Amino acid sequence: MNESERSASTSPGSDHPEDAAVFRQARLRLTAWYALTLALIVLGFSVALYLALAAELPSHNGEGSDLQPAQQAERDTSDFTLRRLRLLLFAGNVVLLAGGVASAYVLSGKTLRPIAAALSRQRRFAGDASHELRTPLTVMRGTIDVTLKRERTPAVYRDTLREVGDEVDVMTTLVDQLLSLARGQRTQALPTECDLRAILEQVVREASTLATERSSSAILIPGPALPLIADGLALRQVFANLVRNALQHTPDGTHVTIAAGPRAGGIEVLVRDDGPGIPRAERERIFAPFYRVQTTGADGTGLGLALARELVAAHGGTIAAEESPDGGATFRVQLPGAVAQPLRPVEASRPSDAG
Q1: What is the pTM for the complete model shown?
Q2: Which of 152, 217, 176, 212 is nearest to 303 (CA)?
């Protein structure tokens, strides 16, 4: 649990008074239902216990004046026992209900805390998304306003349209990633039979243009086919994000290596680079939406790694950032079992060196 989630779980709704009021109201209602359920159970048990014990005591047959001394003594003892039993049951029920209400209040808070934390995360996510969407809109609005202040040459108008078009591309990428992240959080993977090796080869081919622009390289270490049952499109997006992230957030001339193979009943993929690496304190935070490590000043939406984690989790797998043995960063993706029967062997392509 990261720091923001921990604070949300310890003080639900503290950032929003209306959320805190809703949380308290829901907690009191849930406590009342817990207490009512406990009261009915305790009352039913007490009545049953009282009737069962009363049935074991001598019955009160005959009038008081006709009873023999021994019978009267027995009846007095029975009455005394029943009075004590009623008193003990009443006192015990009061103590039990008081403790039950207190416990119900605590348990209701624990029950609702994940919901309150989720609401808090949703609010933060919406706020961050609004900020990220507002930024390119502000840039476009400013560019257009400056251009329209006076007559410009056709070349200036073309430059303005080009700048606006670049910002539209940024917004398109951001919206696409937001939608993908939402789908990754709400849906399960759609498994089909696929070859992870072929998916990685496609990812490397698609990353070749970006790698060439940065004088970097993206290499897939050759190996056999890796058949599995998974959502191929989702996995393609995961590794495309990881490779693109490794190329964009490292200096020019960086070498990115992708290795994949079977590991402990599943498949493990390593995406390594020889860049500056990721500080230890940042390795968990980088998977939070909109979080960026300030390394090379590369642009980005801060959603790629968050989306990758959600899609890997939808497959029941894990993803983690580590330090590479020779420096740089390593992203380790582990996908569980769900391995298909061997596919027809495919011809392994040569390593794709985009540099």
Answers
A1: 0.53
A2: 176
